[in-house]
Amino acid sequence: MPMRAAVITQPRTLEVLEVPTPTPGPGQVRVRVGATGVCGTDLHLFDGHFHARFPLIPGHEIAGVIDQVGPGVSDLQEGQLVALDPVISCGQCWACRRGQRQHCLRFEALGVTQAGGFTQYVVAPATNAYPVQGLSAAEAAFAEPLGCVAWGILRLRPEPGSNALLFGAGPIGLLLMQALLVSGVAEVTVVDPVVERLALAKTLGASHTVQSGPPMAQALRDLKPHGFDIVAEATGLPGVVEAMPQYAAVGGRLLIFGVAPEEATVRLSPYDIFQRDLSLIGSFSLNGTLPLALSWLESGRIQVKPLISHRMPLEDLHKALKYKEHPGMGEALKVMIIPEG
Ligand SMILES: [Zn+2]
Ligand SMILES: [Zn+2]
């Protein structure tokens, strides 16, 4: 039986095709996709960046119901709703042995180097499938981006009672904001150009919101004359990264979370970083942090329903990727592709 899949056949060409339905091999499960989130990475892949191999079924934020288990799978059953960790690591290389699985020297990932979730069925190692309780598939599909946020939190190690400044109130920014708040940060100030996003940030727990623009710098200095303990960005904008140190308090921790263009560079003052005891922290992908994300989702401590702006069928993936060229889509937040929708 063939299935329908959104396939990037070559850079900048996306087609919905009939392809063979995969069969789970030893140690694998097959998942009937309930929802797959659209992410900036999918757009980069569409444009031919990263180590993409075409043809590729993209989509790495996947949740669905197990419909077949392969030989040797003991701890999962058909009918279970699972969230998939897309990172497939070898477990044997130098990076894996150091516990840095997302840097595996033989890195593979669902929706990046192997068939992902913008289709009806996806096969994954059973060890990548995490059973989910009390969530819809669309909510469970947030386990992957929130797992990346969880890794960022583990990298950042926020101090209890500290305060944070966050640039960017897109879906990732709004997840990061909530994760900071459930990780002991007392107050988060959020900056974004879009007032609707700032309003949502406020609803989800932001202590203050500031619209980006010329008066922003003064507004932030008025809020925290000595600077913020944590300055994080979820924008991928080099200009934002350059501006971050000026808002940090002495001893401040700066988290670069957004995906900047690979060739971008920024100007920073080494003297300033030295003299004010600043820390500059990067965070890449997720590293075994999907269960932590699920615990935040299942406990209701982190809200994701308000982040879903669109639910669309496979045929609309192209529109979702290029939403900026479709005024009708408005200010998209997280777009969920529902293959059976
Ligand atoms: Zn993603
Ligand atoms: Zn490895």
TrEMBL record:
PROSITE patterns: ADH_ZINC
Keyword Oxidoreductase listed: yes
Ranges for domain Alcohol dehydrogenase-like C-terminal: 171-298
Cofactor: Zn(2+)
Keyword Repeat: no
GO molecular function: oxidoreductase activity; zinc ion binding
Gene: rspB
The protein's Enzyme Commission number: 1.1.1.-
Protein name according to UniProt: Starvation-sensing protein RspB
Enzyme class, first EC level, given as a word: oxidoreductase
Family of this protein: Belongs to the zinc-containing alcohol dehydrogenase family.
Pfam families: ADH_N (PF08240), ADH_zinc_N (PF00107)
Domain of life according to the entry: Bacteria
Domain Alcohol dehydrogenase-like N-terminal intervals: 25-132
Keyword terms: Metal-binding, Oxidoreductase, Zinc
Gene3D superfamilies: Medium-chain alcohol dehydrogenases, catalytic domain, NAD(P)-binding Rossmann-like Domain
Originating organism: Calidithermus roseus
SUPFAM superfamilies tied to this protein: GroES-like (SSF50129), NAD(P)-binding Rossmann-fold domains (SSF51735)
